[in-house]
């Protein structure tokens, strides 16, 4: 796995709120209950498939990425309060990808406040800090500010979020040397299969914070017989060559 993709996977974990993965994050009243077992993301000739394994306590234990550049395994560790405390990333094939780990710190209210991402240096074989993220929250325990400090280059970017009905409907980004960017999103009324799933290596187009699924002019969603989203196509005018394809597979528990 490339360093860029590893970072891409780990960055998403900074948006987690203090939820436990043992909860039914699909939150449907009927039985059986569903949880995601596989998530596939592809664009052009590149594709990534994430397979999820859960422990007997219902928490996410392992995620295996079988992307184009080789398998990569993420192992989740939890503290005594049941909060995600550390994720260790290990390439399953020698010389493909870099070993890494990420730590998680919480405040007294259980909010995730700080994450630190480390990569194994190929030159001296020691772990070096690559990135620190600091989050603040609103009264609903949703992250409203995400400050990202990248150690190489000493650059800082800030993400500000606004919510409607538990969904991130507006994001404002301030990055060094770039104009301030604000974009908005619309949502459906079906459960987001990744909501609250601690340790989910989400892709660019999926969130673990939003309760529902992002939809819009450049997004085409398909739903299964269980009422949950099964496929999502994202792209300008939904052009097949340039679109991103997401597929969700579930298991009962």
Automatic annotation (TrEMBL):
<keyword id="KW-0732">Signal</keyword>
<protein>
    <submittedName>
        <fullName>YD repeat-containing protein</fullName>
    </submittedName>
</protein>
<feature type="signal peptide">
    <location>
        <begin position="1"/>
        <end position="21"/>
    </location>
</feature>
């Amino acid at each position: 796995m490339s360093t860029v993709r590893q970072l891409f996977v780990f960055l998403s974990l900074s948006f987690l709120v203090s939820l436990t993965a043992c909860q039914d994050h699909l939150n449907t009243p009927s039985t059986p209950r569903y949880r995601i077992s596989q998530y596939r993301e592809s664009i052009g000739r590149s594709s990534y498939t994430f397979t999820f394994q859960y422990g007997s306590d219902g928490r996410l234990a392992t995620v295996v990425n079988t992307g184009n550049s080789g398998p990569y395994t993420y192992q989740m560790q939890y503290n005594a309060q049941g909060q995600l405390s550390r994720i260790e990333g290990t390439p399953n094939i020698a010389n493909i990808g870099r070993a890494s780990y990420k730590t998680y710190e919480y405040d007294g209210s259980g909010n995730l406040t700080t994450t630190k991402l480390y990569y194994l240096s190929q030159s001296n074989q020691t772990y070096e800090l690559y990135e620190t993220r600091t989050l603040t929250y609103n009264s609903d325990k949703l992250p409203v500010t995400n400050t990202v400090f990248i150690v190489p280059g000493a650059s800082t970017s800030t993400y500000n979020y606004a919510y409607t009905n538990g969904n991130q409907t507006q994001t404002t980004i301030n990055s060094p040397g770039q104009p301030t960017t604000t974009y908005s999103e619309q949502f459906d009324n079906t459960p987001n299969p990744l909501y609250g799933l601690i340790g989910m290596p989400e892709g660019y187009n999926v969130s673990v914070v939003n309760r529902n699924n992002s939809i819009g002019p450049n997004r085409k969603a398909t739903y299964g017989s269980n009422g949950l989203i099964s496929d999502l196509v994202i792209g300008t005018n939904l052009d097949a060559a340039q679109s991103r394809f997401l597929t969700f597979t579930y298991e009962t528990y």
